[in-house]
Specification:
about 250 residues; alpha/beta; Arc Repressor Mutant, subunit A; four-stranded antiparallel sheet; 12 strands; about 40% helix; about 20% strand; globular
């Protein structure tokens, strides 16, 4: 069985060495880089399944690295590992393309657990079932867990791994109101309420990509003071994708 690859981007050699040791012990193939401007070439050559990314990097900071990766269509999951611990810092990291966020000092065992959880949810562990190959999510939206594709009408929509997981979770609970806490637990494996703003940020991103008008959503509906639900819009409100992007 081929080992999964983890790219560690960390400018502190002692921390990089600690992460490297624990990930290799857990059975991953690991490569470490130490500067922000080396990440894209390393991704192109190493083809990692996941990136562990520090924010405070020389030359190019971690947030810009996130943006560069997503702009270059590298869609592997990214876990930010940073000394910046405020909720606003977490939201900023997630808003720039990261899938999870851990603060320093950190537990290497927790980092390994987070990596396993993110890879499992991103589909990298190949756990999709054949009978789930195509799921009609709602209206014009179709989601395929096996191929990890989302289409609105005939148009393939590019989603980050976490956006896909969130939409998939809503699809599996279509028509049911899901609280922010349930979404946080089901998609991010977080059980504490202080992170619920993360859900709102990703819902906003999803709406920008799948809704005809993100300000007046047809699919992902807000249930005031509770959470969100995925709904089938009435047929007269289902807008062809060509009209959405006009």
């Amino acid at each position: 069985m081929t080992m999964q690859k983890i790219l560690v981007v960390e400018d502190d050699p002692s921390i990089a060495k600690l992460i490297d040791f624990n990930l290799r012990t857990a059975g991953y193939e690991v490569r470490c880089v130490y500067e922000g401007d080396t990440v894209l070439p390393a991704c192109a050559e190493f083809q990692p399944d996941l990136i562990v990314l520090d924010l405070m990097l020389p030359r190019i900071d971690g947030l810009q690295v996130c943006r560069n990766l997503r702009s270059a269509k590298f869609n592997m999951p990214i876990i930010i590992l940073s000394a910046l611990s405020d909720l606003s810092d977490r939201i900023t990291g997630l808003d720039n393309g990261a899938d999870d966020y851990m603060t320093k000092p950190f537990s290497p065992q927790e980092l390994v657990s987070r990596i396993k959880a993110v890879l499992r949810r991103s589909g990298t562990l190949q756990e999709a079932k054949d009978d789930d190959a195509i799921v009609l999510v709602a209206g014009n939206i179709r989601l395929s867990p096996a191929s990890r594709e989302v289409r609105v009408g005939d148009t393939l929509i590019e989603l980050s791994p976490k956006e896909f997981e969130l939409l998939h979770y809503l699809c599996r609970h279509r028509g049911r109101v899901m609280t922010r806490g349930q979404l946080l637990q089901g998609v991010w494996n977080y059980s504490y309420s202080g992170e619920t703003r993360i859900v709102d940020v990703h819902i906003s991103h999803l709406r920008e990509k799948i809704e005809p008008n993100p300000r007046i959503p047809e699919y992902i509906m807000t249930v005031r003071s509770v959470g969100y639900k995925l709904a089938d819009p009435p047929r007269e409100r289902q807008t062809p994708i060509a009209d959405m992007r006009a």
